[in-house]
Amino acid sequence: CSATARSASVTAISMSPTGSPSRGSCGSIAPTGSS
């Protein structure tokens, strides 16, 4: 995970369909908010 992607991931976690605060798993967050 890159620092940039991580920043965007924080926002993705908020609007993630799962709603689980799993910041550790990049594979789940990256595709969720990374467009």
UniProtKB/TrEMBL annotation:
<protein>
    <submittedName>
        <fullName>Uncharacterized protein</fullName>
    </submittedName>
</protein>
<feature type="region of interest" description="Disordered">
    <location>
        <begin position="1"/>
        <end position="35"/>
    </location>
</feature>
